[in-house]
Amino acid sequence: MSPSFTSASTLDDALAAVASGARPVAGGTDLVVGARQGKAPLPNDIVAIDRVEGLRALEISDAGLRLGTLVTHGDIVANADIRNRFTALADASAIVGSHATRAQGTIGGNVMNASPAMDTGGPLLCFDATVTLRSAKGERTIGLDALWTGPGKTSAAPDELLVSVDLPAPGEGTGSCYVRLEYRRQMEIAVVGATAVVVLGDGNVADARIAITALTPTIRRVPAAEKTLVGTAADADAVKAAARATAAAATPISDVRGSAEYRRAMAEVMATRAIAAALTRARGGSVPIPASPAMYGAKES
Amino acid sequence: MATVETAPGFVRQDGKEKVTGTGRYTADLTLTGMAHVKFRYADHSHAKILKIDTAKARALPGVVAVVTQADLPDVRFGGFVQDRYLFARDVVRFEGEIVAGVAALTEDIAAEAARLIEVEYEPLPVISDYVEAMSPDAPLVHEGLADYEKDENILANGNTMAFHTIVKGDADAAMAGADVVVKSHYRSDASQGVPIEPRAVVAQWQGDKVTVWSSTQVPYAARAGVAQTLGIPEADVRIIVPLLGGGFGAKCDLHFEGQVAAIARAAHRPVRLVFSREEEFKAIAQRREGISMDFETGVTRAGELIARRATLILDKGAYCGEGGFLGQMAAMHACGPYQIGAIKIESHLNYTNNQPSGSVRAPTAPQVCWGLEQHMDEVAAAIDMDPVELRRRTLIEEGAEGPTRQVFDHVGVKDTLEKAVEMIDYGRELPEDEAIGVAIGWWPCMPASSGAYVQMNGDGSATIVTGAQENGSGAVMAMPMFVGQELGIDPDDVSVIYQDTDVAPWDMGSCGSQTTFNSGRAILAAAQEVREQLLDAAAEQLEADRGDLELTEGSARVKGSPERSVAIADLVGEIGTVHGKGSGEVLDAPEGDTGGCVGRLGNETFLAPQLITQAAHVKVDRETGVVRVLRVAAAHDSGRILNKKGADGQVFGGVVMGVGLALSEGTMLDDQGRQRNPHLLDYKLVTCSDAPQIDVEWIEYDSVGPRGSKGVGEPPQVPTAGAIANAIAKVIGRHVGELPMTPERVWLATHGNGA
Amino acid sequence: MKVAATLMVNGTSYPVELDPHVSLLRAVRDELGLTGSKEGCDDSECGACMMLLDGEPVNSCSYLAMQAVGREVTTVEGLAGDEEVGPLQRAFLQQFGVQCGFCTPGMLISATALLRSNPAPSDEEIRIGLSGNLCRCTGYDGIVKAVQQAASGDVPPMRGAPVHADATPPHHAG
Question: What pTM value is reported for the model?
Answer without folding.
Answer: 0.96
